[in-house]
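Support case: adenosine-5'-triphosphate complex. Customer-provided input:
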Amino acid sequence: MAKKKVVYECQNCGFQSPRWTGKCPGCNSWDSLLELNQEQIDYLKKSSKVKVSNSKAISITKIKAEDIKRFSSNSKELDLVLGGGIVNGSLTLIGGSPGIGKSTLLLKIAGNLAKDNYDVLYVSGEESASQIKLRGDRLGSNIDTLYLLAEINMGSILDEIESKEYSFIVIDSIQTIYNSEVPSAPGSVTQVRAVTFELMRIAKSKNIPIFIIGHITKDGSIAGPRVLEHMVDTVLYFEGDTNSDLRLLRSFKNRFGSTNEVGIFEMDSSGLRDAKSMSERFFNKESLMPGSALTIIMEGSRPIVIEVQALVTSAYANPKRSSTGFDSNRLNMLLALLEKKLDLPLGTYDIFVNVVGGIKIQETSADLAIIAAILSSFRERELSSKTLFIGEVSLTGEVRDVPNMLQRLKEAKTQGFANAVVPSNPIEKSELKTYIANSVEKIIEWM
Ligand SMILES: Nc1ncnc2c1ncn2[C@@H]1O[C@H](COP(=O)(O)OP(=O)(O)OP(=O)(O)O)[C@@H](O)[C@H]1O
Ligand SMILES: [Mg+2]
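Agent response - structure generated as follows:
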């Protein structure tokens, strides 16, 4: 009797194996391999049969380059993240944790485009049309040329797309849509791959930009298939604290632009708006309390002034270290450095660090400000609210330059700051008064 063929597939990255393993060799995730049934194996075999086509390779010099055509989404922030606007025929994935505002943003954009007389299709597999209409009322998106389709069957969605010349399509969300020819549950690797492939084909052949919403898992990756990120042109992630009204839209992959830009939005009762004044959001202009220090970080190409806070108090038993918005390993490194270089007895203190406004610092330029905040709390001495601390601190206690220093100082000047503590003078003179602190020891002299 012929032995039954067994295939296991990773639900995270799509890796296939004849044996079950606890850890997927493809993406290192645990317990993600599932046994496929016979119908699924037959489908895989069928879909992997390559169709013969007559295409031939052409010399690269003979290929006519087509211009990338973009149009505005009527949201400055979204245009910025996309690299200058929505690209015709592109497939974009927006991921983010539950309730962060994915549907809100895309319904708002869909409404914006409908106002410009584009025919827009919003497909929802998660909510009923009346639920979406309610949200649309709030967002001011209920426009004649915005069409809703509450549907999870790919075949019906395709019929609808074929029935009209749509200029923009939203799929909310990819994990709920299924192709009835694929013998797997919605959200599984095989389904998501098949549905995304179909959407990619439509986007390219009909030259329609399509935005797909994807759920993310606890560890922050798009739920289920990693393959999804490879297939689409652009991957955007929504970040933000649900307690704060601020949302950041970061680009992780963009086939049509840089991934450096960040879109900043505010959530309010009328939906997500482009955030306006960023300057007063993250710090108190009047005065600072002991334990607070100001720095300026780069979010994409934008310098933003933020306040970092530290609380240093005597520890009763084991000293605690906790950090919100700043990498805790980096905090431990800075504390070890302060103990060694400045002889501070920090081992007997609890130390808490917080970044105001729910921002997560992703660069090293705030090291100096974190140290300043810790020293300020330790000595109960407040710092000036007109002074910024900018610099990366190395393991040797040296303070180093960070990229875009001049741009940061210029922004600080326009926001009315008087002084900056930096590792070296930028080449061009900025009008800001700069104090040089090129080692950790120098900071204490300065304070
Ligand atoms: N009336 C309102 N006023 C202000 N904010 C609201 C209001 N209604 C909803 N919200 C905000 O909108 C958020 C829901 O946004 P949305 O449904 O777009 O999220 P989502 O990312 O699509 O979530 P899911 O993954 O569950 O689909 C809520 O968490 C809430 O913060
Ligand atoms: Mg939603």
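Residues 189-206 form the longest helix (18 residues).

Case will auto-close in a few days if no follow-up is received.
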